[in-house]
Design a protein that fits this description.
Structural class: alpha+beta
Helix content: 40-55%
Strand content: 15-25%
Number of strands: 16
Number of helices: 18
Distance between the termini: 107 Å
Oligomer: single chain
Radius of gyration: 34 Å
């Protein structure tokens, strides 16, 4: 092989490597920064008002709940150390895990129901990612300016002005993120005590970790990643199509009315030019927080925020065309040209009725269980060291340990009794005080006449009753051991 052939071979191999590298690089396209336009006209548009109403409502609840008081304690507190969950007047214990499970199931079914009826309303208005992104973008606009100014600022080289603006923005983001992390920990640690610990710089390691972790997650997701969380990280975007059908309410573009699109002319009507109602202004793309073009049809990146509806309606009003070119509608309604009344009639379809029926059934069952539950919980533990023994008077004695929990926040006077054998009686203290939302361990000695107790084990019942409210009582079954003869 001569030098020319060798050179050609090397150049061919290098070219192949370059082509492969170019092909691989195309699979990992660089992220294109999205600059959503916020202002549409002089005032907040219709759906823009709803989005901000959802921001205020959700954040007033999130930031405000830990500061509410109820019965001289925090109204909502998930006290993991004490293994008690306080929800206003309701106190849940580890034994009440079924209630927490039911609440989670209700939340999931409600999401399924709302998705089947109204698409991604949760994503567009109430999802924490959407809400905090909206807050962070508002801070960004207040400091760096509107969309055009931010685009110019980002293209500028770093200088004193750009450095100050970027520093101020990130400082404000970090402040909001840390306050969000502090509030999150305040749901698991009494928030006032936790605040005093922070001021005294006497914070436990785990509390500090979760403040920083949750704050960092908020700062990163809402400040930096934004639409990437919705497009690539959120699993809901991937399986939402399983809950959609042709009658699900979604953000739609009426292609039959809008196409072909074009700017038009002042001298001729759009009909004379063969154009649809879409003037191709591009506002629907500029306002989209995920950077999609709704005119390309339903896309999994669409979060249903309706920003494009506001933008399109604004343009239609300016050019004197009917609103609703982009609107909340269903695939069937657009295809079959159904009016609003006909579209509403199709809401009550089997999928929706199934979700709604199951949801109502679980809600009713949970409400009933909470109303009728007995606010006393009792565990009976046998004393393994002394199974059965004969005591004075020819009696047989069995020893137990009762663990009694008061799930309410009212103190109670408790009385103990036993039944199941002739002459069975409580030989230990039969009455005791039980404080609010507390658990006590009470030794219990039961005695019965030896001749009334058969060898082996017998079933007996122990009743724990509140003297101040006789209807509050728990009966537990255990065994009473007799003596071997």
């Amino acid at each position: 092989m001569n030098d020319v052939d060798e050179g050609n071979r090397v150049r061919a191999a290098a070219g192949e490597v370059a082509r492969q590298a170019e092909a691989v690089q195309s699979l990992y396209a660089r992220r294109v920064e999205i600059y959503p336009r916020a202002k549409i006209g002089d005032h907040l548009a219709w759906f823009q008002k709803w989005r901000w109403a959802a921001v205020w409502a959700t954040q007033l609840v999130y930031y405000g709940l830990p500061w509410l008081s109820w019965n001289d304690r925090q109204a909502v507190l998930f006290d993991l150390a004490a293994r008690k969950f306080y929800l206003f007047g309701l106190v849940l214990w580890p034994q009440d895990i079924i209630f927490l499970s039911a609440i989670l199931i209700i939340a999931a079914l409600a999401l399924f129901l709302f998705t089947a009826v109204g698409g991604r309303l949760w994503c567009g208005y109430a999802c924490p990612q959407t809400v905090y992104t909206e807050i962070f973008m508002w801070i960004e606009r207040r400091i760096e300016g509107d969309r055009a100014r931010r685009m110019v600022l980002d293209r500028e080289p770093m200088g004193p002005r750009k450095f100050l603006l970027k520093s101020a923005k990130h400082a404000a983001w970090i402040a909001v993120a840390l306050w969000t992390g502090y509030t999150f920990v305040g749901y698991f640690t009494p928030i006032r005590e936790f605040g005093a610990e922070l001021l005294a710089l006497d914070v436990g390691g785990w509390s500090a970790f979760w403040v920083l972790f949750y704050g960092f997650a908020t700062y990163g997701n809402a400040g930096w990643m934004r639409e990437q969380v919705c497009k690539y990280m959120c699993p809901y975007a991937r399986f939402q199509s399983a809950m959609f059908d042709q009658d699900t309410l979604i953000v739609t573009y009426d292609a039959a009315r809008g196409e072909p699109r074009g700017a038009g002319s002042k001298k001729k009507s759009r009909g004379e030019l063969g154009l649809g109602d879409c003037v191709d202004c591009g506002l629907c793309v500029q306002v989209c927080p995920t950077g999609i073009d709704i005119r390309n049809g339903l896309q999994y990146e669409c979060i249903g925020c309706a920003a494009c509806i506001d933008a399109c309606n604004h343009t239609m009003a300016k050019v004197g065309l009917p609103k609703g070119l982009v609107r909340y509608s269903t695939t069937n309604a657009v295809r079959m040209r159904l009016d609003a009344r006909a579209m509403r009639r199709r809401v009550f379809r089997p999928r929706v009725l199934l979700y709604g029926g199951v949801l109502l059934g679980i809600v009713a069952a949970l409400a009933t269980a909470i109303v009728v539950r007995v606010p006393l919980k009792v565990d009976v533990i046998r004393d393994r060291a002394s199974l059965a023994r004969e005591v004075e008077g020819g009696l047989v004695e069995n020893v137990y340990l009762l663990r009694v929990s008061n799930t309410t926040e009212a103190p109670r006077r408790i009385a103990l009794s036993a039944s199941g054998l002739p002459g069975l009686a409580v030989a230990s203290e039969a009455r005791f005080e039980l404080g609010p939302a507390t658990t006590v361990s009470v030794p219990l000695r039961l005695v019965a006449a030896a001749e009334a107790v058969a060898p082996g084990s017998s079933k007996v019942s122990i009743e724990v009753r509140a003297e101040d409210e006789p209807t509050v009582a728990v009966r537990e079954t255990t065994t009473f051991l007799g003596l071997r003869r």
